[in-house]
Amino acid sequence: MFLQSLRKPDWVSFPSKYKGVIKINVIAEVFPDLMRGLGVTVSVLIASAFFGYLMAFIAGLCRLSNNIVLRKFTGFYIEVFRGTSLIVQLFWLYYAVPMLFGIELGSNWWIGVIAIALNYGAYMSEIVRGSILAVAKGQTEAATALNMSSFQRMRLIILPQAVRMMLPEFGNYLIQMLKATSLVYLIGLNDIFYYGNILRSNDLSMAPTVYLLVLLFYFILALPLIFLVRKAESISKKGVAS
Amino acid sequence: MNWSWETFFDALPLVASGLGITIGLTIASYLFALIFGFVWVFLRRIPFKPISWTVTWIMEFIRSTPPLVQLFFIYFAWPVVPYVGMTLDPFTSAVLGLGLHFSTYIGEVYRSGIEGVDKGQWEASTALNYSLYDKWTKIILPQAVPPTIPMLGNYLIILFKEVPLASTIGVVGILHMAQSYGSQYWAYLEPLTIVGILFLILSYPSAILISKLEKRMNRRFDKKAALSSTQKGTVV
Q: Minimal CA–CA distance to B47: which of B37, B57, B35, B55?
């Protein structure tokens, strides 16, 4: 009997709780389960990116407005959302807002999207503001000399130049937003991470495989974004002096 | 409006008692990231291509995946990993998880600092026959690190705002305290607001401080850059 146990390959004599770590077929078992959460993760990412960029432009332009009330109010919004962490804002929207006003904010999906969009909108509004200010002053003056209205000036002259400068940072924040979507699990959305945690709580021995796969899922989602950022960097550098 | 000042002042001491853990965790994981950032830099500088290439992609992997999942991996999955696995308490897991995540960012900051050092400095240290150790500690790093201090400060503030993630694995910081108060008395509004206010009070002044520091640093290093460029101009 002793000899028999010697002849066995190493992993067979492992305590049974370790078996799952080495078995390849665990991946095949886990993969379809995680796939079920992919839709939620991607939809939250796309929606929060859309509203985040929208928020960034609105807040960034408001910061540059001549109306002092608007400017101060936007500044307050930006500082509050940049000064606290996303997870706190998410919980605040989820737990506190319904208690404060006695209203429900629609579905949990919307709460997650709103939290991520408001948070990253605040960060990205600074990029919008900085890029618009970075467009050479002569451009504004030339547009004024051509008798353009302030709206035309912004739309036709300033923004096309400023947006190009924003692209690389916008791409970086898109990756940050992808990472942030994992938080929506905490308010009860069934994303990739949620299914990963379900699998882990069913069988702890699968945990390393499950979490590595979850990380891989996020990495594969991030890969195109990483290349997009590199592309954006080359676009924003093209034809710019120095 | 269901705001109650009574609950606010009732929850305040409890929530504030988690502040020590939150700040302690921030400092511990920041120190870990500062030290481990150097490890990444030096691993990446190994001239053997496959190694530096692998290290670059590992850094990219850690940086572009959610820190929350990484925390869960370290806390729940690491003890089950054969041979090397061990059970870690929540605080240590959080230090390792957040520290490792931010070390990849800080490694990039160091790298940009090192690349900013003038090529002549490398040549000079070789010409003066400095050993590898002396070259790094006496010539390169003293010039590479100071210009990156504002960026490092920014990452400290960003890290501070990521620290409440650790409440999900049971580190009893301010967010965890607020949640436990909330679930006990079914009053989330006031404790969560306190958490937000505490974060603002701590991070807003430090952000202002960092931007002041950045302006001062810029002036200092721009002067040098301007000086060297004019000198170059006269030579040419």
A: B55
